[in-house]
């Protein structure tokens, strides 16, 4: 009888734990701009604003450091190491083929905005891609759904002014429940 109780409890906890892990614990608002020379796409300029709880440890570690202080550079490097370990949490596609990124961002930084930490970086494509007449798809997400990464509005993906006349952007938010 004791074994049955322990087995039932283990099963309950396993199911409960699975359900509890199926929702996000951290939230990041995304903004993305295209890095181009007018004819080729060379990267994505990312801006990730973390929720206050996710930001708390970073901001505590930064203390009263001013923008550009060494502590911000150190914290940015630590956060970027995690992002790089997850392939920038981003996939980029062109004509059904995965587009590769360089292993390191060309620039990155971390800053405080009120009670939130903001990570900015340029995600460089390994090879520049042509723009004229092309269609690209990119997705930024945490496959475990521990972190909810989202665009608050369609305008959070921004085209350079020179491309706005001939290019369009559509933002589609994934539904993790599907």
Task: Write structural notes for this entry.
- This protein has 178 residues and is an alpha+beta fold.
- It has one domain.
- The chain contains three helices and nine strands.
- The chain has helices spanning 2-20, 52-62, 70-85; strands spanning 26-36, 40-50, 90-94, 97-98, 108-113, 116-130, 136-140, 147-150, 157-158.
- Strands 1, 2, 5, 6, 8 and 9 form a six-stranded mixed β-sheet that branches. A three-stranded antiparallel β-sheet has the order 4-3-7, with no helix packed on it.
- Strand 5 and strand 6 form a beta hairpin.
- The longest helix has 19 residues, at 2-20.
- The chain starts with a helix and ends in a 20-residue tail after the last strand.
